[in-house]
Amino acid sequence: MSQVVFSAQSRVKGGSSEARRLRRRGRIPAIIYGRKGDPLSIDLDARDFMNSVKGVSESTIVKVDVNGQVHEAFVKDTQRDIRDGSILHVDFYEVEGNTILRARVSIHIHGTPVGVREGGILETPLHDIEVECLPKDLPERIDVDIAELRVNQSIHVKDLALKEGVKLVSNPEQVVALVKFAKAEAAPAAEEAVVEAAAPAAAPGAAPAAADKKAEK
Questions:
Q1: Distance (Å, whole) CA 200 – CA 36
Q2: Which is nearest to 94 in space by CA: 67, 71, 77, 78?
Q3: Sequence-distant (≥ 6) Cβ neighbours of residue 151 within 8 angstroms
Q4: pTM score of the predicted model
Q5: Rg of the Cα trace of the chain?
Q6: What is the DSSP string of 82-149?
Q7: What's residue 210's pLDDT?
Q8: How far is Cα 125 from Cα 183, in angstroms, rounded to an integer?
Q9: Where is 32: in which H helix or E strand?
Q10: Cα distance between residue 31 and residue 22, in whole Å
Q11: Collapsing DSSP states into helix, strand and coil, what is residue 71?
């Protein structure tokens, strides 16, 4: 996947009224937060951003071209309008090429486990891991093939294949995927009800059978 590039313009004015004016013009107010210096206020073309941001995750490094000056950054946050889903504001976090960064990388699981076809249930409790590396080495995602996973087998974080230069930060013992048998459900109480229903009901006012026998004695 080629690196995504967003074209942006720097802006001086701030405030909610300026933000509304930009949105009416089809622009999105945004900020680039850097490791050094003050945040940079920018605005983006709304249609261009919506089309280009598809498939971009928190671990995807993008380029933001601000009046010819290129910044490499993460898309850290997008604020949306709850009514129509339109993007109201974007936060970028700038990275430096020679500085080690810490980021969360999503886990993408694919394949149908053998254990599921044998009657087991698949559980995937972990959806991302935390790593440290240089920006150039940061994976966009980690693919995990679980097709060979059998019942009572699991894949842990320590089993994931990370490329050279990528250091694991998350707990290596965390479970990524496992297949286990479903617990046997308790027999329904309906069976007891059927047995009780099979016994003849006593006539109204009749004494229990045991009492009758005692009286006969």
A1: 87
A2: 71
A3: 115, 118, 119, 120, 179, 180, 181
A4: 0.68
A5: 31
A6: TTT--EEEEEEEE--TTS-EEEEEEEEEES--HHHHTTEEEE----EEEEEE-GGG--SEEEEE-TTP
A7: 47
A8: 18
A9: strand 27-33
A10: 14
A11: strand
pLDDT at residue 31 tops 70: yes
Q: What are phi and psi of 205, to 5 degrees?
A: 85, -10
Token pair, residue 14, equals 């701030």
Tell me: the pLDDT tens digits for 150-197?
A: 999 999 999 999 999 999 999 999 999 999 987 654 445 445 545 555
Distance CA 154, CA 104 (A): 22
DSSP state of 162: -
As a whole number of angstroms, the distance between CA 60 and CA 45 comes to: 20
Q: Tokens in use for 104? A: 């969360």
Q: Identify any residues that bridge with 177 across adjacent strands, giving them in sequence order.
A: 155
E strand or H helix at 153, and its extent? Answer: strand 153-156
The closest alpha carbon to 76, from 94, 92, 57, belongs to: 92
**Residues 63, 76: contact at Cβ < 8 Å?**
no
User: Alpha-carbon distance 186 to 202, whole Å?
Assistant: 31
Length of the chain measured in residues: 217
Query: Which are the contacts of 83, defined by CB distance < 8 A and separation ≥ 6?
Result: none
Tens of pLDDT, residues 37-57: 789 999 999 999 998 888 788
CA-nearest of 80, 133, 127 to 106 is 127
For residues 48 and 212, what is the distance between their CA atoms, to the nearest angstrom?
91
Closest C-alpha to 60, from 23, 106, 100: 106
